[in-house]
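To illustrate the input format used throughout this study, we show a single complete record. The first block contains the structure-token representation of the backbone; no residue identities are included at this stage. The design step must infer an amino acid for every position from geometry alone.
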């Protein structure tokens, strides 16, 4: 999907099918359907089961890690799209500053911090020595290429204490993405591969499955 088509369908891409509003804390079930954390919490509470949850779309039952829905994987693509939506709507709704929590129309986005900064706080951000190589751009100056850069930003680990660690590896035993710290702690002794290598392998498997199903469908039609 090109950037123009994506922006035209942005609201549809970031809407939860349960509450029919913009995602808040989007979580992904093993069936690859995504929902707000609070929507899944309501479904879990009504079912009376804490270890299993039924997908509202495909009705597939999935195990809940430790019974805690917060441990379900976060859909980083949706989070990026939510940031793009905030950038596009900033002139009318404003965005919340990462530092002072105030919502301002005149705001900036830092491509390294992956967060929004108001006009006052961006000065403090830029004065910090650790941020000397960061690129911060006023939201009013965003162009299509800048939107693409937001969509391509790296994903970071959600494990406590690893929030600044980029997800670089895929654990084949646990079937999850991990950072360099996870590799030597929670996944020590497991087989790990680079994320790009795992993605290429998974993509090849998906393409093969699609072609196989196409051939099967053609045989059935014949």
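Output of the design step:
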């Amino acid at each position: 999907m090109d950037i123009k088509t994506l922006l035209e369908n942005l609201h549809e891409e970031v809407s939860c099918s349960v509450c029919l509003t913009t995602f808040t804390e989007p979580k992904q079930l093993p069936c690859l359907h995504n929902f707000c954390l609070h929507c899944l919490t309501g479904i879990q509470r009504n079912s009376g089961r804490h270890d299993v949850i039924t997908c509202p779309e495909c009705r597939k039952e999935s195990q809940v890690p430790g019974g805690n829905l917060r441990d379900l994987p976060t859909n980083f693509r949706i989070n990026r799209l939510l940031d793009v939506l905030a950038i596009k709507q900033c002139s009318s709704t404003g965005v919340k500053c990462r530092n002072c929590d105030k919502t301002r129309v005149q705001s900036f986005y830092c491509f390294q911090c992956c967060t929004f900064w108001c006009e006052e706080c961006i000065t403090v951000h830029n004065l910090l020595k650790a941020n000397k190589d960061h690129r911060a751009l006023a939201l009013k100056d965003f162009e299509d290429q800048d939107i693409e850069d937001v969509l391509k930003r790296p994903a970071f680990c959600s494990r406590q204490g690893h929030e600044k660690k980029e997800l670089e590896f895929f654990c084949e035993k646990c079937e999850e993405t991990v950072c360099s710290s996870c590799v030597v702690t929670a996944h020590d002794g497991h087989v790990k591969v680079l994320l790009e290598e795992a993605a290429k392998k998974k993509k090849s498997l998906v393409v093969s499955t699609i072609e196989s199903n196409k051939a099967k469908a053609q045989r059935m039609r014949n």
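Structural context for interpreting the output: The longest strand covers residues 107-110. The CA atoms of residues 211 and 217 lie 10 Å apart.
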